[in-house]
Automatic annotation (TrEMBL):
PPR repeats lie at residues 135-169, 170-204, 205-239. Residues 1000-1022 have a biased composition (Low complexity). Residues 999-1032 are annotated as: Disordered. Transmembrane segments: none annotated. It holds the Pfam family PPR_3. GO terms for molecular function: mRNA 3'-UTR binding. It comes from the Eukaryota. One of its GO terms (cellular component) is mitochondrion. InterPro entries: LRP130, PPR_rpt, TPR-like_helical_dom_sf. This is Leucine-rich PPR motif-containing protein, mitochondrial. GO terms for biological process: regulation of mitochondrial translation.
Length: 1032
């Protein structure tokens, strides 16, 4: 509604007391107050035409209205979304045009003034093309857009156009026409409009005088302008901030710094200081008129006045749009990022976004991103530039940015490049796909979990085919990667045509083994396995003969196939596959014998697995396993330790008995024996598998042997590259913190952040728990700070809202070690670095209980910046209530302009119920009796709280009191309490049964009444809510 008032459209929403039947800009909310006792009021039927029909349009309109209500400004992207969503719904109506024109008065904030005026003309042309006759109010909005953007329009022509349309100018029209004349310094024209205004007996306000001040200054008569200032007072009016802004704006165009400051100071002395946005407009005016050096001095004066909310962001974006990038960066640099705890988002990426939107080249964008990072080292301006380029469908710009990032040694990941390939594919631009694919190919390979191979197979190759490129074209273009592409072609042939075709097409060509080690590579083999099992073995033999196909690649591929057969329990196919491997002398790794489902296999399959499964070192040395009879792993594990040692004496070159002895030592938690067995395995050049290494590391950590655990973590990295789970080094780091070795823990946290493993939900939760444990066990403030910094400095594992829990644990730990002032500084630092304020309830309640007013004010400033004033005022009030100060809480909730957040109130009431904080809950309910919230809902929370602590008598009294105050309580609440009596095996009071009966009667009457107004009977079994439930 506030947006409509500012648009001058409030009168358009109602015509002759009837809601318009076309689509509306605003979705009306109907509020039903409690009626008189005993009155049965039928709810009104709201026509569906009152609500916008499209969900997309609803969301966009909500965003626009929220930003207008909070004066946050509308960006180009949101404006275009609004415009498109309105046009998609059919013919635009007057409210739609009014909203679009109103936005153009001072926005979109990231587009140049010339573009704003172009948008105004386009919108008005569309209105005329729709044969829609505008109202005077709508015409005024158009004139206002001209004036705010300082367009020199012909006021008389506009007045004649209004007459042709049958429109009568009102006071606002005359005021805007006068302003139009005055912008050109045409005092004579302005006076003619003023005379017409007097003839119509329209009151002259200070806005008209302000326009004449501008007119006289533009006409070169500053003395006359000063006389107008005196005339305002003699007319019984008072000058406002706009009066002095008009003076200052004129002298800003001239570069007269002294005069600008003079009128700024005069306004301040009169208590009508220029608003922040006005001050920044003066700076922009100086810059736009070629007075950059003077503008810098003005900017310094402005910056000393404190924080500017979002004004500086919007004004700097406008400077970028006008082409003054250096001035925009200077504005971003000088504006304070924090002042007495009042904070601003200081990432600077909005500058980059504005440059992308306004068509700046890649080099300029990159240079500006460098400046932003220099100012704010934690900013990710370069990555954001890439993101904004993709969002704007500027694929060439994105690729140019990627090339610049690579040339400057920025870390490039696969997801940065893939959107470019997809964008070029959509455009059927083969050269573009080649260009982006080249960037992808040049990325370093990161092991099994690498996304690079995934995207080459699933994205780049299909994109090139769709652009009409053949395999020969691709290989010719990427000669240095010929083996890799041959492997990609092989995988595609296997998936689409089978093994035989793939082998024939690959005959005489060299393949690269890395795509077959890619996590999803073997999945291409599964499609034709039942029919072409012999050909599959032939393909493995073909790989074995490839010079560039190393043993690790072959082990991974054969292992995946064997696991596939075992997991599907296809024993006949597995036996056939194993026979083929035996014939071709292709061996398997030991870990495959540890698959639990293998125990269900027939004995002949287990025997063949024993023959094929050898140690990793044997595989690497291409040694054929012995065919003699040896005990299997499961047989050895069933023997006693002495029996295994005896077996080892007879077979000293066997790996399995040493492995079993290691397992038994770990089961017994015998650290010395574990160390001995590990030294023996290492001395004999046996290699533990990935699973075995993980088990060893876990056991060593449990036994607090961190030094050896670190050694085996290094061994693990040799096997997996950077594809290890981050929880592995973090387990060791957690134990090191407990031992007081913070430096070692910091190194392992860095190793965890270097992991390329894609974590699942379980891994993320485990990682979070380890981070929290480290923070809780750190002994000093310095140690806690060092650990926290390491966790979140450069490429953190957790970011955004996912990190809130860890930051909260950090603040709680610091609260144990710091006084209030130090704790508030810690909270401030967390917000500045990560833009979140965790455990705010905990911090607020601590300061409230200690009555630390000064620090509480600082925390309030942080909270207002983090959550918004409305939300944080609620949290502050609730904290006072929980601390036993309900009167203070009530005072805060009665703050003028505060919008009651009933959902937040309900969530906190439920939290009090769970914690059994009944005193706080009672205070909350009492405070809410004076607030515009559902009393029925508050009653249900209170009754639930009493039931939770077993005080059924008090719950009953609460319902009785509600019945006296508000007629009938909600039936569900009464039923809930009756069930509580039944569960506790107590007799329910008759008063509750009586109230339940009355609720049922009221519901029946409501149902009968509503059926008289409907054409069809209610759904059988449905039960409309009582009057009180509807109100809630």
């Amino acid at each position: 509604m506030a947006a409509l008032i500012r648009c001058g459209l409030l009168g358009l929403s109602f015509r002759a007391g009837v809601f318009p039947q076309s689509k509306n800009i605003v979705r009306y909310r109907l509020t039903l107050p409690y009626g008189s006792v005993g009155i049965n009021m039928t709810p009104p039927v709201i026509d569906r035409s009152m609500v916008t029909s499209a969900m997309v349009k609803d969301k966009v309109l909500d965003d626009v209205h929220r930003k207008l209500d909070y004066n946050q400004g509308i960006p180009t992207q949101l404006f275009e979304s609004l415009r498109a969503s309105l046009e998609d719904q059919g013919t635009l109506v007057e409210q739609d045009f009014g909203l679009l024109l109103h936005i153009c008065s001072n926005g979109p904030f990231d587009c140049p003034t010339s573009k704003r005026l172009q948008l105004v003309d386009e919108i008005w042309s569309k209105l005329e093309g729709n044969d829609l006759t505008p109202s005077t109010k709508l015409y005024n909005i158009k004139l206002k857009a001209y004036c705010r953007n300082k367009k020199h329009f012909n006021a008389l022509d506009e007045l004649m156009n209004m007459k042709k349309l049958g429109l009568n100018p009102d006071k606002i029209t005359y005021s805007l026409l006068i302003e139009g004349f005055c912008l050109k310094g045409d005092i004579e024209g302005a006076n003619s409009v003023l005379e017409a205004m007097k003839a119509s007996q329209l009151a002259i306000n200070v806005t008209v005088f302000n326009s004449f001040i501008t007119g006289h200054l533009k006409a070169g008569s500053p003395e006359e302008a000063s006389k107008v200032l005196d005339l305002i007072s003699s007319s019984g009016l008072s000058p406002n901030s706009q009066t002095y802004f008009n003076f200052a704006s004129f002298y800003a165009e001239e570069g007269d710094m002294d005069s600008v400051v003079k009128y700024m100071m005069e306004a301040e002395e009169l208590g009508i200081s220029l608003e922040h946005s006005m001050l920044l407009d003066l700076h922009r005016t100086m810059v736009a008129n070629g007075h950059a050096s003077v503008a810098a001095k003005l900017l310094q004066i402005i910056s000393e006045k404190g924080v500017f909310s979002l004004s500086f962001m919007q004004k700097s974006c406008h400077l970028v749009a006008e082409g003054f990038v250096d001035a925009a960066v200077e504005l971003y640099t000088v504006m304070p990022k924090a002042d007495d705890g009042k904070l601003l988002n200081n990432s600077g990426s909005f500058l980059i976004k504005s440059m992308v939107v306004n068509g700046h080249n890649a080099q300029d964008i990159f240079n500006t991103a460098d400046k932003v990072v220099e100012i704010c080292p934690r900013s990710i301006a370069h990555r954001n530039a890439l993101l904004y380029a993709y969002k704007a469908d500027q694929i060439d710009l994105a690729v140019e940015l990627l090339e610049l990032m690579i040339s400057k040694n920025h870390t490039i990941k696969v997801p940065y490049i893939v959107p470019a390939i997809c964008g070029y594919q959509k455009e059927k631009n083969s050269e573009g796909v080649y260009r982006a694919t080249k960037l992808l190919l040049n990325l370093p390979f990161a092991g099994i979990r690498d996304d690079k191979i995934d995207q080459l197979v699933r994205c780049s190759y299909p994109a090139l085919l769709q652009c009409g490129q053949s395999r020969e074209d691709i290989v010719e273009r990427f000669k240095e990667h010929e083996k890799l592409w041959n492997s990609i072609f092989f995988l595609d042939d296997v998936l689409t045509q089978g093994f035989d075709v793939a082998i024939n097409n690959a005959e005489g060509k060299q393949l690269d083994g890395s795509p077959f080690q890619w996590a999803d590579g073997p999945n291409n083999f599964f499609k034709f396995l039942p029919q072409q099992i012999d050909s599959c073995v032939k393909a493995l033999e073909f790989f074995d003969k490839q010079p560039s196909f190393d043993q690790e690649n072959l082990n991974y591929l054969t292992g995946r196939l064997v696991r596939y057969f075992i997991n599907s329990r296809n024993w006949s196919l597995l036996e056939k596959f194993l026979d083929g491997l035996l014939e071709k002398k292709i061996f398997l790794v030991q870990t495959l014998k540890q698959i639990s489902l293998l125990k269900e296999a027939p004995s002949n399959i287990i025997e063949k697995m024993d023959q094929l499964c050898v140690g990793t070192s044997s595989l690497n040395n291409q040694q054929r396993p012995r065919t003699g009879k040896h005990l299997t792993l499961s047989q050895l594990e069933q023997q006693s330790e002495e029996e295994v040692k005896e077996y080892l004496k007879k077979n000293p070159d066997r790996f399995l008995p040493r492995l079993v002895l290691l397992h038994k030592a770990m089961d017994a938690d015998d650290l010395e024996s574990i160390k001995q067995r590990l030294r023996e395995i290492q001395a004999l050049d046996f290699s533990l598998t990935l699973v075995q290494t993980m088990r060893v590391i876990t056991k060593l950590i449990q036994l607090k042997e961190t030094e050896m655990a670190i050694f085996y973590f290094d061994e693990l990295k040799k096997q997996t590259g950077d594809s290890y789970k981050p929880t592995v080094p973090l387990m060791i780091a957690e134990e090191l913190v407990k031992q007081g070795n913070i430096e070692g823990a910091l190194e392992l946290i860095t190793a965890a952040k270097n992991s390329q493993h894609s974590p699942d939900t379980r891994t993320k939760l485990a990682t979070r728990a380890m981070f929290v444990s480290m923070l809780q066990n750190a002994p000093t403030v310095e140690d806690v700070s060092a650990l926290h910094s390491a966790m979140f400095h450069s490429d953190p594992i957790y970011s955004g809202t996912d990190s809130t829990f860890i930051h909260g644990s950090y603040i709680r730990k610091m609260s144990e070690l710091q006084d209030d002032s130090e704790l508030v500084n810690t909270v401030l630092n967390v917000y500045q670095a990560h833009h979140i304020f965790p455990v705010h309830d905990f911090v607020l309640e601590r300061l409230i209980k200690k009555k630390d007013v000064e620090n509480l004010k600082k925390v309030m400033d942080i909270g207002n910046a983090a959550f918004g004033s409305n939300f944080f005022h609620h949290k502050l009030a609730i904290s006072f209530i929980r601390c036993g100060m309900p009167a203070r809480g009530a005072t805060i909730l009665k703050t003028p302009g505060l919008k009651m957040n009933e959902r937040l109130i309900s969530v906190n009431c439920q939290a009090m119920v769970r914690r059994k904080e009944i005193d706080a809950l009672e205070s909350m309910v009492n405070v809410m009796k004076e607030m515009p919230v559902s009393q029925a809902t508050m009653l249900s929370h209170l009754v639930e709280g009493y039931v939770t602590v077993g005080n059924l008598k008090q719950a009953t009294e609460s319902i009785q009191q509600f019945a006296l105050d508000y007629n009938l309580p909600p039936r569900k609440t009464v039923e809930f309490l009756l069930k509580a009596y039944e569960s506790s095996k107590e007799d329910a009071p008759e008063v509750l049964k009586s109230l339940l009966s009355k609720c049922s009667e009221s519901a029946t009457q409501s149902q009968d009444s509503s059926s008289l107004d409907s054409d069809s009977s209610p759904t059988e079994g449905s039960e409309p809510p009582s009057r009180t439930d509807s109100a809630s």
